[in-house]
Amino acid sequence: MKTLVSVILGASAILLGSCTGHRDVVKEMEAYSPPAVYQAVKAAPDSQTPPSPGDKAFEAQKEKLERMRKDWEKALSSPSAETSFFTPDPERARAISPAFTEDGAAGAFLSHGFSLEDLEILVLNRNPMIRNAEKTVQATLESYSQASVLDDIIRSYSAYNAGIMTGVGNMEDMESIYRKFPFPGILSLKGDIVRQEVRIAVLDLEITKRTILTDARKNYWELAYNSRAKEIARRTLNLLEDLESSVTRQYETGRAKIPELTRVKIQKEKMKVELLTIFEQGLNIEKRLKALLLLPASAKIGTPAGGDAAGPPPDLAGLIEAALKHRQELEKIRAMIQRMEFMIEMAETEIYPGAVPNLALTENRAVTGSGTMKAEEPFAVSPSAAMGSGLPKMPWTGLSEAYLRETRQRLLALKEELKAKEAETAADVREAWFTLDQAGREADVYKNEINALSQLNFSVSSKAYETGSVPFSETMDAVLLMFETSLMTERKKADVFIALAGLKQIVGISKPGESKEKDGTHAP
User: Fold this and answer.
1) Quick check: is 17 in a domain?
2) Nearest to 475 by CA among 270, 264, 275, 274
3) Torsions phi, psi of 114, nearest 5?
């Protein structure tokens, strides 16, 4: 009995001591606080965690794409003379800027004498086709942000489902080497491709500007000629009416015959029809200008103020050289060639392996790399059928390989097309230069010789007819000859400026004969 009591008392003492020790342990655990270094690291924001080298390169490429996009936007907002087919005077453009958006202001501005430069500025800022091409460029610029969006999604997905430990090595990079594919170099190639696409869109914009401005220039000189033709026709009609009055008086006195009177009446009626035809042609030209300026039908177009003399034609060899360097169609083909070369390079990078088999790249997989429970080797110990040296990175690349061969052939075709276009450009420049040279020579002859002789012939014939020394037929022929030569003189003057506009369109620069030091369509 005494023994039992002793055992019970000993056990109670042991239990009481154990409970006291447990309470001490609990109190110690509750009072524990981590070291200050740990708390500082835990309190630090995630942004202070240094990114991996791969992330740095990827972000650098994204920043580069954003800088390229901003450079393009800056170049489009303030184009320079070296990068644009036509660069208006900023002060003049600012002065007539209300006419860019207000139809009433544009109509009032054009209702009086206006210069060619003013018309060019208005067309450049009002034409819907130019606005369309500018919007297309802006839409193409959005490709810069689209170039990296897919890679951003893939990398974000990889960050969420990445393994929690590496098979071998340290814990610096928790992302699989294959999840980083395509690498930042692929993003750089995408940026190069987008740059060429934007360059092509900008060249299309310049082609549109060049076409619309050339059309406006030609219609301007056609309208100038039409205005002068109406004046010549009215003046000739007045001469015929005076001549009719003179012949009528002589017929009444018996000095003129009926055929003379009927002939002058016939020529007078024909001149009225000619004047009406010239007037209707002027309405057609005005309608084309209204269409280019997007003006309502009720708008009035006044008389062009004309311009300076065109001067001698530029040097032909210099024109051909400038056209081969600056013509937008050739630059567009060159940009397409560069874009296709970047596409081929990117496709080869995605399909073919690098210089090494990549058999020792660290895999980021949550596996046991050693021991009896390991699922696989931490390193590749043998190449697979689709990963051997000289074989594609990924299996089932037959479709991509066929596409690559097709693209290479298309690249060769583009290079041949460039050669053909260069030869065609040289011939086109020669023809445009010949047209300008011919128009200039003919305009000089009519202005300096033929027109002056026809006016002298009319002056002598009219005085001789009044004295009765020459027949009426010679006087009538002198009137018609003076009308035809005066009309042809103005026609030749307009033809010179129209031919010059056509030459500028073929060469692709606003001032043929003046060389540009910079490429007019390259990226800023």
Assistant:
1) no
2) 264
3) -130, 150
How far, in Å, are 242, 462, 465, 486, 501 from residue 470 at the CA level?
A: 18, 9, 5, 23, 46
pTM of full prediction above 0.70: yes
- Measured from the Cβ of residue 429, the count of other Cβ atoms closer than 10 Å reads 24
pLDDT at 222 over 90: yes
Residue 46 belongs to some domain of the structure: no
Q: What is the pLDDT of residues 354-403, one digit of tens each?
A: 544 444 444 444 444 555 555 555 555 555 544 444 444 454 455 567 77
CATH number at 113 reads 1.20.1600.10
- Residues sharing a CB contact under 8 Å with residue 367, sequence separation 6 or more, in sequence order: 167, 374, 375, 376, 378
Segment 439-446 long-range contacts (CB within 8 Å, at least 24 positions apart): 439/492, 439/495, 439/496, 439/498, 439/499, 440/310, 440/312, 440/313, 440/496, 440/499, 442/492, 442/495, 443/489, 443/492, 443/493, 443/495, 443/496, 446/485, 446/488, 446/489, 446/492
The number of domains in the chain is 1
Residue 224 lies in a domain: yes
Scored b (16 or more CB within 10 A) or e, 37-66 reads eeeeeeeeeeeeeeeeebbebbeebbeebe
Amino acid at residue number 226: N
- CB environment 284-311: b (16+ within 10 A), e (fewer): ebbeebbebbebeeebebbbbeeeeeee
Flag whether 518 is in a domain.
Answer: no
Structural domain for 480, as ranges:
52-351+389-507
DSSP 256: S
Residue type (1 letter), 7: V
pLDDT band at 166 (very low <50, low <70, confident <90, very high): very low
28-50: per-residue pLDDT in tens? 767 767 666 556 655 655 544 44
> CA-CA distance, 122 to 116, in Å (whole number)?
10
Determine the pLDDT at residue 422: 94
